[in-house]
């Protein structure tokens, strides 16, 4: 395709340049509107500048990809509600044998989860948990955050539903889910293990630092080079449970039923000396325990109650009412209405637990069925949409609450990006540049594969991986199709592998990296700032080595 007219080329470059700046740097000072608005702005400029017609703009939107994205988002939302990611998080710390074992688990679990549930979702739900585990075990957060981000990117390369660029490749190439998995999965496994080995070598000294048993601080030098986030926003819904209370803070607790007094027993049993009773319900609980241990008809007396508000001015005696005394007497009488009420509550709780178990099982089985359908080669977009609709139907509630969690901004971003990239292709610039590189980047030679990988690697970090796939996909496939049909499929798999792993090169190379960075910085009580340079120091060697090893495996498929 030859270059278009001068005005069309210039205006198309302006529109694409604005899209690129806002997509890579969504908070630029002169227009901090974000990626979604940036993609829509680029699409609008392409139409206003008459680089692309309105009809062609609508046709440029790839509905199968949008449908596949929507379906996988809904399924991921239900998996999160079914505590799938909570179980994955617990798996990380279950019987962990130290810092190195924990780091290896983070690499494996995040890679597998990303292949099945997308890398962005994995990073959103696991970042804060991993950060909390590292902080509580007095470990440096940086290696674990890097392990999560890089392994999620590598793992997502294994399946078409692992990341957005793979969705584009699977739809455009027509490669089935099974063929995609067989072609990239071995490279993913070796890549994750290689990345884990590089992480262990890079941070071996810091992970080997023993904890100071007295002070709880590392005995060696401080390994956190980045600025710590010392101020955290309090969110009651996300507040961690409190294991202990400061006695000095007890004065702030309001009086519930018996005026919030601290009750001390002066009975002969020393174990009851520190027991406090805050309400009549607690007294009844204590009476029930005494009922089970001794079948006597004694009346329990609670004495020496010190009023905290009077600051120890006087002590008072509690005397039980007649109804309270009768509750202590054990008689062979029919169960009281209260006992029946408690039994009904227990039955209700058991029934709710059973419903939750059945619902979670249904979610897991439907997700498994979706994966099996994808492996059988059924249409990926409609398979994901069907699974999403079945989950919504089985929820038996208004779907609005669930659908509100779908990232519609991402779907809109893709629509705008499809239009912008298609308009840029109509300028003829991408095709002209590719004609200069194509003779030297044919995949029938090792040098050609290496040059193609370098082009994809650089362009993925300059223009982002999804636009790179949209710009290069059909051209790389057409060049390889001239060699053989198998070469065409191999070219698509090479594009999928390199464009995905390229996200590990810099912090801006992948949305998953930015998610980990932002989630860690804003984490409650355990905040950490993962800087651009700390990621780059590890990302460059890891990306080069993992990409090279993976290419050897993918090209041999």
Automatic annotation (TrEMBL):
One of its GO terms (cellular component) is plasma membrane. The chain crosses the membrane at residues 9-28, 59-79, 102-131, 181-204, 362-394, 406-424, 449-472, 492-516, 536-554. Residues 31-502 form the Citrate transporter-like domain. Its main location: membrane. It is found in: Cell membrane. It is a multi-pass membrane protein. Residues 302-346 are annotated as: Disordered. Keywords: Cell membrane, Membrane, Transmembrane, Transmembrane helix, Transport. Pfam families: CitMHS. GO terms for biological process: transmembrane transport. InterPro entries: Cit_transptr-like_dom. The keyword Protease does not apply. PANTHER family: TRANSPORTER ARSB-RELATED. This is Citrate transporter-like domain-containing protein. It comes from Oryza meyeriana var. granulata.
